[in-house]
Amino acid sequence: MKIFLVPTDFSAHAKKALLFALDLALKTNARILVTHVYARPKALLGAPTDHEEEVRKQAVQRMQVFLEEVTSDAFVSVPLDFILKEGDIIHRLGQLIEQNNVSLVIMGTQGAHNQMEKFLGTNTESLAKRGLCPVIAVPEQASLEPVKHIVYSSSMEHDEVSAMNQLLQLKNVFKALLTILHVNSEDQLDLLDDAEIKANLRLQFPEEEFRFDTIEEEDVAAGITAYVMTHPTQLLAFTMLHRDFWERIFLDSVTVKLLQSLHLPMLVLPENGKKLDLLQGVAHEDLALEQKVTSVL
């Protein structure tokens, strides 16, 4: 069974991420693993072991309250477990992804130190760069609406067959429109012919419905923003490791602010990492909400 990993710090944006995950899991017969990673507590004079146990118990209580606030009867058939881990959040999430063969990470975002972090969120950016699996970032101010339109921002400088394989799964799960958007600017390298890329995608996916749109705009982020504002969109996607394309964008804080203003869930696809797999498996039984705790390492 597919597993979606949902990290939480029990915040409002973490709740939105879990709601998004529950809806997607319901549509794809997936299991959800909610995880909270906390720092090792400083030892108190006299009883460090007791203090660490108290911190763990408090985390369990907060997790139970968090799940009760988010879950509802609509998602009762979605198998859900939770796990607590102590340590560095990115290291622990990486372990959980590999140990549990996680298909997708869905996490809320808040906080920033550099331009990419301002766009994706500190931990989301760090995890996405590792390329272990696709990541959906749900911004704090995102409005969770039914996904009817997915926009994939492409530089048209790379073969997009792998990305399309993944995007079409999401499109079909949500029964949404899929647009491959190219913002054409003088900054583009034009390594490949756009027409050839489009023709190849049509050839590779002859039975699938999707569309291409190209707009002229020197500021790529401004172009994406303008397009999404005029074409209602519920999910924006891009491939993270096309660094020559995306890192040029994030050199300018103004462009980051433009993208931030969209308040959209964003799908980050790793170029060379695990591919998104949402294909329907064996339907799971209707199970009551499970709340399990794995011992802290």
Automatic annotation (TrEMBL):
Q: Which family does it belong to?
A: Belongs to the universal stress protein A family.
Organism taxonomic ancestry? Bacteria, Pseudomonadati, Bacteroidota, Cytophagia, Cytophagales
The protein's organism comes out as Rufibacter radiotolerans
Annotated Pfam families:
Usp (PF00582)
The name this protein goes by in its record? UspA domain-containing protein
UspA domain: from which residue to which, for each copy? Answer: 2-139
Q: Which domain of life is it from?
A: Bacteria
